Amino acid sequence: MNDKLIIFDTTLRDGEQSPGASMTREEKVRIAKALERLKVDVIEAGFPAASPGDFEAVQAVANIIKDSVVCGLARALDKDIDRAGEALKGANRARIHTFIATSPIHMQMKLQMQPEQVIEYAVRAVKRARQYTDDVEFSPEDAGRSDEDFLCRILEAVIDAGATTLNIPDTVGYSVPDQFGATIANLIRRIPNSDKAIFSVHCHNDLGLAVANSLSAVMNGARQVECTINGLGERAGNASLEEVVMAVRTRKDVFTCQTGIDTREILTCSKLVSSITGFPVQPNKAIVGANAFAHEAGIHQDGVLKSRETYEIMRAEDVGWTANRMVLGKHSGRNAFKSRISELGFEFGSEEELNEAFARFKQLADKKHEIFDEDLQTLISEAGFEAEDEHVKLIALKVCSETGEIPNATVTLRVDNKEVTGNAEGGGAVDASLKAIEKLVQSEATLELYSVNSISNGTDAQGEVTIRLEKAGRIVNGLGADTDIVIASAKAYINALNKLHSPDQRRHPQKGDV
């Protein structure tokens, strides 16, 4: 069991490509710190050439993370690689991950290049990346639909050029486990210098097979898996980090390798990513779903009470479900609050920030008796949302809803420093509230998603509302939380409106989709 499986997390890069899941620099740093506590081997912090904001986020993560390798993505272009090298300058350990498409359809239709040109670009990119770091990863984009003979040629060439990790991506989620595993085995066997590089996989979940394909690859010699927290990612997402890690840990009889992940941090990391991105975790999600260790059937309950192993193959404690945690309340002081927030991976930049956050905490404590970690994470995330761009701010909301009457809402907003008040009727209290807000701001955005999730247990729990808006092809997620679900909904809608109002400078020339 000395064979190490490297866990490469791309939540901050590929995970951010989920529609509406963009993160601020500060949020990326918070997640990166959580991933470091999780003992993730490699953190792919972003795509520096995509935008100034992405460059700054990668730079910030590189400057603060000490234990994990920090990676930046770059197309096989000089300007991309130079940008990544600059962003990673302050990293304790840096990796540049460069890629170019290798499938016939991508080379012909997207790149409009001949195979020999693609090899030339790949080799040049790896050599240029080696000027910045000796840790260089290369990905043949859309490898799952690429010719195996051509893959062997280009991968042999980039190893000779200095690539130390070869990542084989199933970019469109087209592969199935037996076939994908066989591809990895064939590449390792056929490439003469394959022993000089680590083989990695990056699987998408379009057919629900991302984890299965990744594990099949591991069984056939891959020793790095690229994955995300909660399986977040473009389209149907990526391989779920928690599922890959716990499968390898639980089935030691099958996998001849082990990870260095501190699994007790999995749940905290999952909740943090969910809170920041506004993507709730489904209750029946493996490992981190609310029902993952719940037993409804009487036979199951009886078996678990007699011996846990009858129906549980993992301990809930091992992934953080029942770990001891400090529960704060209205009598908790600033030091206890600051200490717990720090343990959750957030540091205050000034005493003023601490005081503002503590005031929010006290307001929440007046509404609910016990404050859990999930409440604190949401509290900090909400503060960050409001600090981004308060083009619209909620001042007051009054709702009337009674049996036999049409619900109506009156809302007061501050829009560009001017207070305005409006009212509207709706099918329910939430509908009336959002219509009243829209009447005042006239955003003309389309509501694509409305989702409610309970942050913790109890009737006094905060409700977390996610709202997705679309306008002119741009998609944003808004997040709001409150013990009153109507207010939480208004906050979420306003948060989304503010994101729509801020300029979107992010660009993905090839979407960084490996």
Automatic annotation (TrEMBL):
Name of the protein this chain belongs to: 2-isopropylmalate synthase
Molecular function GO terms recorded: 2-isopropylmalate synthase activity; acetyl-CoA C-acetyltransferase activity; manganese ion binding
Catalytic activity line of the entry: 3-methyl-2-oxobutanoate + acetyl-CoA + H2O = (2S)-2-isopropylmalate + CoA + H(+)
Keywords: Acyltransferase, Amino-acid biosynthesis, Branched-chain amino acid biosynthesis, Cytoplasm, Leucine biosynthesis, Manganese, Metal-binding, Transferase
Cofactor field: Mn(2+)
Family: Belongs to the alpha-IPM synthase/homocitrate synthase family. LeuA type 1 subfamily.
Region (Regulatory domain): 393-514
InterPro entries per UniProt: 2-IPM_HCS-like, 2-isopropylmalate_synth_dimer, AIPM/Hcit_synth_CS, Aldolase_TIM, LeuA/HCS_post-cat, LeuA_allosteric_dom_sf, LeuA_bact_synth, PYR_CT
Alphabetized PANTHER family for the sequence: 2-ISOPROPYLMALATE SYNTHASE 1, CHLOROPLASTIC-RELATED (PTHR10277:SF9), HOMOCITRATE SYNTHASE-RELATED (PTHR10277)
Domain of life: Bacteria
Subunit and partners: Homodimer.
One Pfam family per UniProt: LeuA_dimer
One cellular-component annotation, GO: cytosol
Role: Catalyzes the condensation of the acetyl group of acetyl-CoA with 3-methyl-2-oxobutanoate (2-ketoisovalerate) to form 3-carboxy-3-hydroxy-4-methylpentanoate (2-isopropylmalate).
Residues at which Mn(2+) binds: D14, H202, H204, N238
Biological process annotations from GO: L-leucine biosynthetic process
Pathway: Amino-acid biosynthesis; L-leucine biosynthesis; L-leucine from 3-methyl-2-oxobutanoate: step 1/4
Keyword Chaperone appears in the UniProt entry: no
EC numbers, comma separated: 2.3.3.13
SMART domains: LeuA_dimer (SM00917)
Domain Pyruvate carboxyltransferase: 5-267
